[in-house]
Amino acid sequence: MGGQYRITGDKYPRLRRPKRRRRLVLAVVASATALGLVGWGTLQLIDVFTGDEDQAAAAGPKADCASRVSPSPKASGSAGKSGKAGASAKGFPAPGKITVNVLNATPRAGLAKDTADELKKRGFRIGNVGNATKEYDKKVKDAAILLGAKAAEGAALQVLNTQLTGARQKTDGRTKATEVDLIIGTGFKALSKRKDADKALADLTSPKPTPSTTKTC
């Protein structure tokens, strides 16, 4: 090269990056770092505010694991085809322990005997069979009057009442709770059908279901 200046020696000047470019790179790195810190901080805040809910959700099944009360299966009726039922937990007497006096208060002849025979087939003990006394003769408009001691009101009279519909219960001064009168009235047609009477007796004498506690998890 010609000219006034010449380069001599084996060392050359080192080229350096402009200061503006270096500052730009540093600014980009700083921005990225700041964004990372902001994101990390946001995640930490989310964990702080939602951590309890997550724990509650995780503990949810245990919290819901409560004991539930459900009725135990209902005991089956104790009355069978013979109509004889054992004494229930409620204290109702069995038909075989109840003496029924069948009295006819209607003009229909033979009604007391036919009814007594059917009750005997259903397991009841039969006492007197005949016409009603003057107090009730032709004066009972209901299907029947079931008459017994005060103590029979929630016991023997209830059992006998399962054998027919439309009867009216009444008490008197007698003391024997297992001897009752069936006074047939003009509204009487027949005893209930055997299967219906057996079901009614079973529903009356069977113990009600008792609640039992079971866990659901």
From TrEMBL:
Region (Disordered): 60-90
Keywords: Membrane, Transmembrane, Transmembrane helix
Lineage: Bacteria, Bacillati, Actinomycetota, Actinomycetes, Kitasatosporales
Gene3D superfamilies hit by this protein: 3.30.70.2390
Alphabetical list of InterPro entries matching this protein: LytR/CpsA/Psr_C (IPR027381)
Name of this chain's protein: LytR C-terminal domain-containing protein
Compositionally biased residues, Low complexity: 70-90
TM regions (residue ranges): 24-43
Domain spans labelled LytR/CpsA/Psr regulator C-terminal: 98-188
